[in-house]
Structure formats: structure tokens, C-alpha cells
Task: inverse folding
């Protein structure tokens, strides 16, 4: 009994950009960490950085942002991004809504 290796026959990625977080990779990563959002499948670094987040984990992070009003790490991360909690929640909701409905992960890439 073995485990077979397969290659994707069709793999299509279309990115939507909203002009948010340009040149703010580190700051964005700090917010994700403060919200307890795990970044999976990370590759690259600096300007070229891609990763995935499970939609379930993303939604938990949104709930943390809504409910944990006394978290200094979150407040500092938001300040470094120049965003209020409400603005960030709106952006996160947009990313969730605009993501592939047939895929349980949000895929991100700084290019």
C-alpha cells in the first residue's frame, strides 16, 4: 500500500487587488499574528510573499478583532497599518466575500 503523487491538471489563480497594505508586508503579518490567524503554505519573503489562511481561521480572527477591544498588540498592529478596527473588519469581510467560494482557503500574495 502506497501513497500516490498527483499533479494538478488545472490550476487557476486570479487575484483581486484593492490597493490595501502596499509595502506593508511586515505590518500585515504582525496583525495576523496578533489576531491569532495562522498563515499556511508560506513561500517567498519581502516583496514576494504568498500564503494561505483557512476561512475558518480568518473568521475567528475577525471575531477576535470585533470582541478583543483591550488588546495592545492588535491596537499597535492596526496603528502601524493606518486602519481602524471598523476599516479592517470591512477589508477582511471583502476579502472573504471575494475569495473563491469553492475553496476553503483564502490565498494571498504580495507581488
Result:
Amino acid at each position: 500500500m502506497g501513497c500516490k503523487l498527483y499533479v494538478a491538471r488545472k490550476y487557476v489563480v486570479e487575484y483581486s487587488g484593492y490597493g490595501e497594505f502596499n509595502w506593508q508586508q511586515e505590518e500585515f503579518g504582525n496583525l495576523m499574528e496578533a489576531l491569532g490567524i495562522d498563515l499556511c503554505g508560506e513561500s517567498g519573503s519581502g516583496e514576494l510573499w504568498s500564503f494561505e489562511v483557512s476561512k475558518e481561521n480568518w473568521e475567528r480572527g475577525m471575531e477576535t478583532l470585533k470582541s478583543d477591544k483591550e488588546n495592545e498588540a492588535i491596537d499597535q498592529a492596526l496603528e502601524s497599518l493606518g486602519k481602524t478596527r471598523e476599516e479592517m473588519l470591512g477589508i477582511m469581510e471583502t476579502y472573504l466575500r471575494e475569495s473563491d467560494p469553492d475553496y476553503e482557503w483564502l490565498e494571498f500574495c504580495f507581488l
Q: What stands out?
A: The chain is about 40% helix and 15% strand.
